[in-house]
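Email to the structure team, subject: Aliphatic sulfonates transport permease protein SsuC model.

Hi all, the expression group asked for a predicted structure before they design truncation constructs. Nothing fancy, just the tokens so they can compare against earlier work. One-line instruction: predict Aliphatic sulfonates transport permease protein SsuC, return tokens.
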Amino acid sequence: MAGPEADDTKAAPKPRRETVWDQGGRVALGLILPLALVIGWESAVHTGLAQGRLMPPPSRIAVTLYDLAASGDLWMHVQATLVRVALGFAFGAVAGIAAGALTGALPTARHILDPTLQALRAVPSLAWVPLFILWLGILETPKVALIAVGVFFPVYIGVAGAIASVDRKLIEVGRIFRLSTLQLARRILLPAVLPATLTALRTGLGLGFLFVVAAELMGASEGLGYLLIDGQQFSKADQILAAIIAFAILGKLADTVLVAVTRPLTRWQDTARETL
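Reply from the structure team: attached below.
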């Protein structure tokens, strides 16, 4: 009889610990496309293929960003936008998780709440603006409320869908081991829905940055959305593009922070991505 050493099956390789060089290489790869776009854009303007007035080159946009930063205006606008997004994300995420957990776990609540929430999800973001101004005025409250609405729906959909898609066999195993309801939720349901919930939070954060532009249409005097509107009114294409780039950098940094903060929660996962 062949011993265990004769077994042809091989254990799956353990994921290699990521080093600083791996992280640096990943960042370098991520910069290839933006740098190529910048070089191509700059070359197109200088060779006359693109009109510099409507499509200012990256060098002019960089000067605009530097001037805004040197005057302190950029940091003021970034701070205002970040505070609004952070507050709206916090309120929207908490409400989305609570509503998603309720409708995902209780069929009666799903039948009562889900149709109405799905209908409200189809309402365009700008449609809420006049109503929130009428109800809440033109200060910070309606802006935060609008961002919270934008964050709420992807988080709600993600959490409710994750709970509804939990494998029934896992629940049955928990009942076989006589787990209490609290133990079942903590040891089976929570790990099962956590990855999808974190993905929903990332989606909600991205939509928070989308909705903040609509929110800053409500009579805002500061914020990156205000920079966009100000650039449009005074035909400052370089300021508009500078605000867009600031939005892109800020959104990417916020997403990176969210991923870094939540990564320890899913450290137990052994996914194919870790071995690729």
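Confidence is low (pLDDT under 50) at residues 4-9. The chain has ten helices and no strands. Ping us if the truncation boundaries need rechecking.
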